[in-house]
Each structure stands twice: as structure tokens, then as C-alpha cells.
Design a protein that fits this description.
Distance between the termini: 39 Å
Number of helices: 13
Largest sheet: none
Number of strands: 0
Oligomer: single chain
Shape: globular
Helix content: over 70%
Strand content: under 5%
Length: 364
């Protein structure tokens, strides 16, 4: 059964609320006095499974065309509402169900088209399920970080592996990616017993995945082109660099709170890598999910540049144990995301005006 277009706006709006709440929580954790956001302890789950989980779920539901696939974004949106209402237990259960449906979506897609990239993305969705399951057992959100990162890293790597088919990959390169992904998963599993050892192993896997992406991704060729193609490629390649840096920092810090590399290790991955992927794919994802025109605008370079500059400041502040620089980086992170949102809104509005102008011109 198809989901009405208007109904699809519900998870999209909740995803925006999750992003706003998550950024608010992040600024509070960075030391800014900005009142008391709801459910401050759900910062990581709110942004990764609440915001990104909803967006990725919507993207897969649109791509597969299966009505039941919408259970994932609606389930993730329901979890956001539960978190905002101070019900983390209900949120965890809702996320567990939503993640299980996402796994089923990829399994169904694999049955229709048995391709390696779908195996990788199924593993990523399974990491979502394992993160949510761990949360239902009463674990703290920071202990979910390895599985949360595995969900995003493997999902993104699977998407890029699919596109890499157009230029071909060698047997050695494919074995490198599969081995790297296995190390990421193994590290997350070990983190159940020892967070420090597991994070270091997962970090090594993330570093190896980054090397594969930098060496085999289609963006290495499309960066030579102009316009939106170069913008997307630049965002992807910069994100891969941050993934490699994150992997190295995970190996050094073991994700132990209180270490100089802890904040830098987290945000080089979740901001430098993941948000760069979001910005890079926006010219494709926004029209697909919103059914709106999104004409290319060089203005998109501004928030992308702000994002990477702000992550650099934040990471440098963390490694230098400078709370002031780190806070400036966090503030600039929020500014970059706000500028991106504002730029996207203006671009969509511009696209609508152009479409109405063309329609009016044809009518006359």
C-alpha cells in the first residue's frame, strides 16, 4: 500500500525537530548555557537514529517503492517523539522495531537483485538493530557509539560500492573493503565487553574503509568536472578524509571519556564524515524525498566550507585541550548546519518560483 505524499511530511518534520534538539543538546554539552533541552542524555541517539535514521529510512522507502518500508522512518520518528517526551525506554523499543524493518527492506532488495552492496548495507542496518537492542538493556547512549557508527559507515560504504561498479573495482579492492567492514563489525562486538579495545579495533576498520573510499570511489573522477558534480565529489572526498582521521583517533583514544582525543574522535566521524555526506548528497536526496525542485547553486559551497572549517577548529581544540577553542568549534558546527538549512530553503523556494514562471509562460 502506497503512503500518501502528505503523510510522508510527518517523519520529515520530526527529523528536522530531531536535528534541532540534537544540536541544542550538543551545544549544552560543549558548555553553552542555553536552557534545558528535553532528554539531554539522548544526544547521540537523537541525531544518529532519530534524525539520520529517519532520513535514511525515507530514502530507502522511496527507492524500494514498498509501502511497508515506511515503517522504518515512521518508527524512527516515533522514537524521536518518545525521546523528547522523556521516555528513552519506549524510544529504544521503537528504534529496535524500525531497524528490524530496515533490515527486512535490504533483505527483500537482495532477493530481487543479489548485489554485494546490499549485503554491506544489510550489515549496516543490523548494526542499527544491535545499537537499539543494547539500549533496551539499559546501556548508556555513549556505549552505543560503536554500533551507531557502524550503521552509518557501512550504509554509506554500501551506497558508494554500488556506484563504484560503473568504474569497476579489482578483486584486491573488494577484499580490502570486505575485510575492513568485518573489522568494523568485530570492533563493535568487542566493545560490548571492552569499550576501549572494541573502539580501537573499530577505529582501525574505519581507517581502512576510508582508504578504500579514497582510492576507489567515483568521486575521484567526478571531482574534475564542474558545477554540482564537483561540489558533491568534494563533499564526499573531504568526508572520507575525516573518516580516516576519526579511525586514527579512535585507535589512539579508545573512545574513553576524559581523554584529549575523545571529543575529536566522535565529531570527526559524526560531523566531519557523516554530515559532509548529507551535504554532498543534498542535491539528489532533497528532490527525491521532497518531490521539489533543487536547482544547483554555488551558494552550497558556503555551508560545506563552514562545516569542514568548524570541525577542524573543534578537533584542534579537543586535541589541544583548549575548552575555549573546542566551544568555538561547536558553535561554528551549529552555524554551518543552520546556514546549510537556510541555503536549502532558499534554493527550494527559488526552484518553485522558476517552475511557476515556466508554467505561467507556457499558459500564455
Amino acid at each position: 500500500m502506497a503512503v500518501p505524499v502528505r503523510a510522508r511530511a510527518v517523519p520529515a518534520l520530526v527529523a528536522v525537530a530531531a536535528l534541532v534538539a540534537g544540536v541544542w543538546m550538543g551545544l549544552l554539552r560543549a558548555g553553552f548555557a542555553l536552557g534545558a533541552p528535553p532528554a539531554p542524555g539522548t544526544h547521540g541517539a537523537m541525531l544518529v537514529l532519530g534524525f539520520l535514521g529517519t532520513v535514511i529510512g525515507m530514502e530507502r522507502a522511496v527507492a524500494t517503492g514498498r509501502g511497508w518500508a515506511w515503517i522504518t522512518p515512521f518508527g524512527a520518528a516515533a522514537a524521536v517523539v518518545a525521546m523528547l517526551a522523556g521516555r528513552p525506554g519506549a524510544a529504544a523499543v521503537s528504534l529496535l522495531a524500525a531497524g528490524a524493518v530496515l533490515v527486512a527492506v535490504f533483505v527483500a532488495a537482495y532477493r530481487d537483485q543479489p548485489e554485494p552492496h546490499l549485503v554491506l548495507m544489510t550489515a549496516g542496518a543490523s548494526a542499527w538493530v544491535l545499537a537499539a537492542f543494547t539500549w533496551t538493556l539499559g546501556a548508556s547512549v555513549p556505549s552505543l557509539v560503536p554500533w551507531l557508527s557502524t550503521f552509518l559507515v557501512l550504509t554509506i560504504a554500501g551506497e558508494r560500492l554500488e556506484l563504484a561498479r560503473t568504474i569497476g573495482t579489482s578483486d584486491v579492492a573488494r577484499r580490502w573493503l570486505w575485510g575492513s567492514a568485518a573489522i568494523v563489525v568485530a570492533g563493535s562486538a568487542v566493545a560490548w565487553v571492552s569499550l576501549q579495545a572494541g573502539a580501537r579495533l573499530a577505529g582501525a576498520g574505519n581507517l581502512l574503509v576510508a582508504v578504500w573510499l579514497l582510492g576507489n570511489d567515483l568521486a575521484r573522477r567526478t571531482i574534475r568536472l564542474g558545477g554540482v558534480t564537483r561540489y558533491m565529489a568534494a563533499g564526499l572526498l573531504a568526508g572520507y578524509l575525516w573518516l580516516g582521521i576519526a579511525g586514527a583517533l579512535w585507535m589512539v583514544s579508545g573512545l574513553m571519556p576524559g581523554t584529549t582525543a575523545y571529543d575529536a574522535a566522535l565529531h570527526s566521524l559524526f560531523l566531519g564524515f557523516v554530515m559532509s555526506m548529507i551535504m554532498a548528497h543534498a542535491p539528489v536526496v532533497i528532490p527525491a524525498l521532497g518531490g521539489v525542485s533543487f536547482p544547483w547553486s554555488p551558494a552550497l559551497w558556503v555551508p560545506l566550507g563552514l562545516l569542514h572549517g568548524s570541525v577542524l577548529v573543534r578537533v584542534a581544540g579537543g586535541l589541544a585541550t583548549s575548552g575555549a577553542i573546542q566551544r568555538w568549534g561547536a558553535a561554528l558546527n551549529a552555524v554551518a548546519l543552520a546556514v546549510f538549512a537556510a541555503t536549502a530553503i532558499v534554493i527550494v523556494a527559488t526552484g518553485r518560483r522558476r517552475r511557476r514562471a515556466r508554467t505561467g509562460h507556457r499558459a500564455t
